[in-house]
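Subject: Re: docking follow-up (zinc ion)

Dear J.,

Thanks for your patience while I sorted out the input files. As discussed at Tuesday's group meeting, I've set up the holo structure prediction with zinc ion included as the bound ligand rather than trying to dock it afterwards. The sequence and the ligand SMILES I used are pasted below, so you can double-check that they match what you have on your end before we go further.
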Amino acid sequence: MKIHDISLSLDKNTVIYPGNPVMIVESYKSIPKDPTNLSKITFGSHTGTHIDAPKHAFSDMAGIDGVSLEKCVGKCRVLDMLDVKEKMEIRDFERCGIESGERILVKTKNSERGFGKFHDDSVYLDGDAADYLADKGIILFGIDSLSIKKRGDEDARPHTSLLKNGIVIFEGLDLSKVEPGEYEFIGLALKFTDLDGAPARAILISKD
Ligand SMILES: [Zn+2]
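The structure tokens for the complex came back this morning:
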């Protein structure tokens, strides 16, 4: 069994989506002045690898503590989207044979470029494709970028179509070191009460 950590590291250098709070880590208590080391952390709810709760797009829907744990653990497929130039469209998913109940992660050229800084031209999910995935009945969708939608785009369906259909969204996955294929997925966020999202630790498990 091999565990692949697909989470971004969290520190003051973590890439932050434009307009989101910067991450601050401060010493609150420290040895030898204090008996233990303890830190104070300030960060946005969509920092690093994170889950978008339905509440991110719909004020009256579930927060992060209402996201199904069953959906966040189990078989998943990492799709090869490395040749997609701008956005993932219906035809990109049609060739993959998406089935109901699948957890889908997409490995795009975003992973190859890395997460050292924010890029405005990240590969994103097209609105029609979001509708298509919702119709197919997938239960989880994860992307190797800080947002599944194009920044500033009026088409909100990449968030709304997935979230209103109970599809868990993971953003900020680092898939640079994993090959497309089948894995066991575990991705769990901190249990903040009724919050719109939260950082998560995500891993893939393969048999070799
Ligand atoms: Zn988000």
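A couple of observations from a first look. The helical segments are 69-72, 90-94, 109-113, 127-136, 157-164. The longest strand covers residues 197-206.

Let me know if you'd like me to rerun anything.

Best regards,
T.
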